Structure formats: C-alpha cells, structure tokens
C-alpha cells in the first residue's frame, strides 16, 4: 500500500505562492499575508507561550483595526481555541496607541469565548472593556452574550446575567425596551418560547413593549416551525393595533417556505404588495429558497430574474438561494455556471455557496466534481466553515480516499485553521483503518498542540491501535442545549 504523506511535511504548491515584487506592488496583499501569518502563528503554538510569542513575532506597528478584525474572524470561522483568540485581542489592546479598537473586534472575541462556553472569561472581558473602552459595548455585544448564555445556562441564570450586565457592565446606561428586546430575542432564537413568555410576563410592566418586541416574538414562533402559531400571533398583533412592516411579512413568508407551503408564502407576498410595501432583496431571496424547497426551479429562476425588474441587485444570498434550488434538481452544470456568473459580476462566494454545491456533488457521489470544486476553493485560499469541513472529510474517508482527507487537513492547517473535532474523528479513524497509525497520532498531536481538545471517539480509536499514545488533555463532552417539547400558542394573556 502506498505510504500516505505526513501532514506536517506539506509543501505549499506554486499556485498559492506570490512573488516578493507583487507584495511590494500590492499593499492589500501584504496585509492579507500578515493576516494569514498571524492566524497561523496563533493556531500553531501552545497557549502558554502566546504572550511572549506575540511580542516576538507581531510588531505593534503593523496592528490595525482591519488586521485585528480579520485575524479574529479567521480564528472564529476556524473554531480555534477561544482563549488564544482572547489573548490576541488583549495583546492588541495593550498596543492600541496607533489605532482605535473597534466594536467588531470586541464582538468577535466575545462570540468566540461564549461559543466555547468560557463565560468566566467573557465576564472578565466585558468588565475590562467597560473600564477602558465603554463605547465598544453595544446592543449587539449584549445580544451575542445573552444568546449563548440562554443556550447553555438555565433560565434563572440568564436573568441573573441580564441584571449583572445592567449593574456591572453597561454602567450608566438606563435599560429600556431595547435591552429588554435583546433578552427576549435570546430566548426566541433558541426556540425557548416558554422562557420568552415568562420573561415577558415578568418584565413587560417595567419595559413598555414596542413594535420590535412583537416582531421578535413573531420570529420566535417562526423559529419553532409552528406556522399556526405564527399566524395566530400575527393576527392577534393586528387586532391590537400593530401595523405590519416588511420584516413582519418576511417572517411570515419564511415560516411558510420552511414548511413547504410555498403557495401560502406567495399569497402572503401578494398581500404585502397590495398594501404598497416594496419587497427587499431578503424577501425575494426567501421566496427563491421556498421555490427550491418544493423543487420548482422554474419559479425560482423567475423570482431571481424579477430582482432586476424591481431595480434591486442580487447579492450572495440571492445567488445562493438560486444555486440551492438548481442543485436540488441535480442540474450541477447550471449551478457551476452561476458560480462563474457570480465571479464575473464581482459577487463574492461565501461558505453557503461552497457548501451547497459540495453537498449536491457529495449526495450524487461525484467525487471528481468534488475535487474540482475543492481545487477552485483552494486556489482562492478560501477557508471553509466547520460544517463544510466535516462533510468533505467524512465523504473522503468513507470513500476510501483518505489521502484527500489528509490533503484537506494540510490545507486547513496551512491556512491557520484548526479542524473541527468531528472532522478529526473521521480522519483519525480512517488513517488507523489504513494502518497509518503514526500519521493519525501526529494529526491528533497537532490538534492538542494548538490548544484544542480532541473528541473522545477519535482518541479512543487511536488508543486501541497505539496504547502508548499520551496527550496532556482533559476529555470532555459538550453540553447540549435543552430542547423545548411544548410549543403551544400563548397569545391573549400577554396583553390582558
């Protein structure tokens, strides 16, 4: 059997290289290279060495708001160790004489920490920001924190967190209906409508509800997938004097589309137009998705073409919706042509673009097409999100193409991304089954050296094949959010 090359010996291909002269001619390319270098630097080194490493390798003169935001964005999308991202952000604050820290960089750091359930560090970060840069504290940062807190913590703990934010973080800010709406939305986005109801009952007398409050509750019902609840609540809102807007109609249209009731979605759309409300690009995109769900490609294309008639410009989301509809019909050539059209018109790809087309190829078992699209993605130095990485790694490994899985691993590590634990499980298991136990051990070792905990599954597979393997780590099991069983309608009692 052909020996599989080791991931740490990957030689970067010429298509990824750039000449020094081109660097000098293109300042933006220099910045991009610094973003790549710093992201890889953070991912490749142990957590304990980060501060001294930053001082040695990152001259404060190169720090800028743009660079910091993009490095943190890469760390977030690559599921890097949240504590290392936090240390980098703190480093940037210590050397912020030449630039002003932005809300975006703070919010990304907070998002990384809360996603990994580092709530103690999140409190530490917010309270530190409150003392030094209180202007960075926004409703968005509050929403990021409370949404994750509501997902992983109890109802009472979330209410206590809201009170702590008011007293110790957003000091001097008088909490009103906007902050109340953020708390309400945190529960609604997690489909925790019983908790949302309890919050509303407990606090509505203190915070007078507004139009956004009702829209958030409507969104919550939509998230549960209960179309009847959406419509009942909507009509109750109208009955009590609420004037619907485009956002309200978008929520109703989306609710019907996701339940495969495309005809009802079109009916609501027509109702909206009769009232003289101009649809937004989000409205049309939602309908295109709905047409795709019911496999009506002709209608999806008609809606997309109608974007231009309405003097709107299709964005990445609109193209993604049409591509999704076409992929469902297995017209992959047309999907690839749409990607070409996006490129010609300067409409950027995002992870949804790649994931949608990859998933179509994977489901149809078109491995050559998967490889071609993978090369296209790699040529653009695009780093996919975890859901795409896991899908590709699983596909390669289940089809006995572990060398492609290892190449994907190389590509991610080379670009400063730390692969998701489930992707690592697939790769380690496949390598062990091929007899490449040492290579599997090195992959897992790389993961641990980057400050990430491997999943127990992959670790145990390797341990059975190589009992002497030892890592200084603590295995853990992710806490799963509580799922609601009761999605009943509770309407009239709110306003009585």
TrEMBL record:
The keyword Flavoprotein does not apply. Pfam families: PPR, PPR_2. PPR repeats lie at residues 210-244, 245-279, 315-349, 350-384. It comes from Papaver atlanticum. Keywords: Repeat. NCBIfam families: PPR. PROSITE patterns: PPR (PS51375). Transmembrane segments: none annotated. This is Pentatricopeptide repeat-containing protein. InterPro entries: PPR-containing_protein, PPR_rpt, TPR-like_helical_dom_sf. Belongs to the PPR family. P subfamily. PANTHER family: MEMBRANE-ASSOCIATED SALT-INDUCIBLE PROTEIN-LIKE (PTHR47939), PENTACOTRIPEPTIDE-REPEAT REGION OF PRORP DOMAIN-CONTAINING PROTEIN (PTHR47939:SF5).
